[in-house]
């Protein structure tokens, strides 16, 4: 039977389990205080206790309520006043129970890439409460201090902020909830802005980047192409079995954001793929995908929508197993072929064994799927030492770091290689952009030294690109390999992290 993936438990119970485990000491998060360059760490619990003892509200010296936290190049064209939630509404709430927590509105930053990632983690409570710790509120021991946790290049960091938010005419100007009393989304965005140096640093990005920062997983973006339908079907089926997160959206520029199409779909909304099932329909066997629109109740109106006649051919017990109900709740089923026709790309975030294990430690619920196997390498390209450039520079190319890899599998297995250049978003204010980066993979063979001039690279069609992360997916046989991460040109310097996921057994 094909998988229909659900949350581990309800959001309220997951949050309570996590909070109880934190208080009792059963679960201690592997997290470090986020420390901006040249600053002292702020430890959330110690600083909150100080503020409560002294009867003051926290003011963050690392991310002050002034223009330096807003921008580094383009100043806002309106007057900005920083206000705490209690100065905006009478009874602020961090998180309202129920669907309101999905109801987030983009602000003037138009950071839809970040918004789409939020849409994905809000469908998985065990991931949401990893980013938004449940041990904080506006009602109990309020001290104007909050914290949020993000994955940064192999480790989790705790970003502490005060709750002063930028407003104009008493209204929040950036991301916020439609429920004006709810402030988790505005505070989460502020913490993410602090992580990268300013609100302006969040302009433009890829959903996959924010997904990784909020899960610690490995995120791919794939084009939905009908001539690759069989491959995509297997990726979705296998990914859902392994706990991966799938999101899809319809491209929209600011002018067309939230345009409602005749199909019932909405441009710019980030939809989540939460299940896959094969059924016998009026046209024979049909692959259906369960889709959720966390941002609204608008649903697909085509074949296999809630009240479409196709469901008449499906027995009641099967519909019950699929939770196929008639309700304007933002969740619907769609045929795989219609998914390919109506959406252009999907984002897939694979959770590694470290993430799966930590979810178990937090929630005491063991995930019902086998995680990917994973190895991780960290390194740096250093001018004159390890920054050899790509393989067209044969004299310097072997200078690049070389990482051995052993893959054990029965037949072929999937190997996903992901190379991240560190810290580049935060360095934008210094005029530093992403470098063109990539990697080359070679069979190790019997020789300990590879003749790079004559050796065949197994990812020879792979191109270098100036993104934070480049990813390649390969179907490979068991054996030994060498991976060389590099910049396109020699002597370009950056730190990097290289991750390899496989559904086989992999080691270095």
UniProtKB/TrEMBL annotation:
Active site: 269, 293
Chaperone in keyword set: no
InterPro entries reported in the protein's UniProt record: C2_III, Calpain_cysteine_protease, Calpain_domain_III, Calpain_III, Calpain_III_sf, Papain-like_cys_pep_sf, Peptidase_C2_calpain_cat
GO molecular function: calcium-dependent cysteine-type endopeptidase activity
Stored SMART domains: calpain_III, CysPc
Domain of life: Eukaryota
Sequence similarity: Belongs to the peptidase C2 family.
Any single Gene Ontology cellular-component annotation: cytoplasm
Annotated source species: Acrobeloides nanus
Keywords: Hydrolase, Protease, Thiol protease
Name this polypeptide is given: Calpain catalytic domain-containing protein
Keyword Hydrolase: yes
Annotated Calpain catalytic domain residues: 57-352
GO biological process, one term: proteolysis
């Amino acid at each position: 039977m094909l998988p229909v993936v659900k949350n581990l438990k309800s959001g309220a119970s997951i949050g309570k389990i996590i909070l109880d485990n934190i208080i009792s000491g059963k679960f201690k998060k592997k997290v470090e205080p986020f420390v901006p360059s040249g600053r002292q760490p702020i430890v959330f619990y110690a600083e909150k206790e100080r503020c409560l003892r002294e009867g003051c509200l926290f003011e963050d010296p690392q991310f002050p309520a002034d223009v330096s936290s807003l921008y580094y190049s383009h100043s806002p064209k309106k007057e900005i006043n920083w206000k705490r939630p209690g100065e905006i509404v009478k009874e602020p709430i961090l998180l309202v129970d129920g669907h309101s927590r999905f109801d987030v509105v983009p602000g003037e930053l138009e950071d839809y890439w970040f918004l789409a990632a939020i849409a994905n983690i809000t469908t998985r409570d065990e991931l949401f409460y990893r980013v938004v710790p449940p041990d904080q509120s506006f009602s109990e021991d309020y001290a104007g201090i909050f914290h949020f946790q993000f994955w940064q290049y192999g480790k989790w960091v705790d970003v502490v902020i005060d709750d002063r938010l930028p407003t104009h005419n008493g209204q929040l100007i950036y991301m916020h909830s439609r429920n004006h009393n709810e402030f988790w989304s505005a505070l989460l965005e502020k913490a993410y802005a602090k992580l990268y140096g300013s609100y302006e640093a969040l302009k433009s990005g890829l959903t996959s980047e924010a997904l990784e920062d909020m899960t610690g997983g490995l995120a791919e973006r794939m084009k939905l192409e009908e001539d690759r339908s069989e491959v995509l079907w297997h990726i979705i089926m296998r990914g859902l079995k392994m706990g991966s997160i799938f999101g899809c959206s319809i491209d929209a520029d600011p002018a067309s954001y939230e345009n409602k199409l005749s199909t019932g779909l909405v441009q710019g909304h980030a939809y989540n793929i939460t299940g896959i099932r094969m059924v016998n329909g009026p046209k024979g066997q049909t692959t259906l995908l369960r889709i959720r629109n966390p941002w609204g109740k608008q649903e697909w109106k085509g074949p296999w929508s809630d009240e479409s006649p196709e469901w008449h051919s499906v027995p009641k017990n099967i519909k019950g197993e699929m939770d196929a109900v008639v309700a304007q709740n933002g969740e619907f089923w769609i045929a795989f072929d219609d998914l390919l026709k109506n959406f252009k790309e999907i984002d897939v975030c694979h959770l590694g064994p470290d993430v799966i294990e930590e979810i178990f430690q937090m929630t005491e619920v063991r995930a019902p799927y086998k995680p990917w196997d994973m190895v991780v390498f960290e390194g740096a390209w250093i001018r004159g030492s390890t920054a050899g450039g790509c393989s067209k520079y044969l004299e310097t190319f072997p200078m690049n770091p070389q990482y051995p890899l052993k893959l054990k599998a029965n037949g072929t297995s999937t190997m996903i290689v992901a190379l991240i250049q560190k810290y580049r978003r935060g360095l934008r204010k210094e005029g530093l952009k992403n470098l063109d980066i990539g990697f080359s993979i070679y069979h190790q063979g019997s020789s300990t030294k590879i003749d790079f001039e004559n050796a065949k690279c197994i990812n020879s069609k792979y191109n270098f690109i100036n993104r934070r992360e480049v990813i390649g997916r390969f179907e490979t046989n068991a054996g030994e390999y060498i991976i060389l991460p590099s910049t396109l040109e020699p002597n370009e310097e950056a730190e990097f992290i290289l991750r390899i996921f496989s559904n086989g057994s992999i080691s270095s």
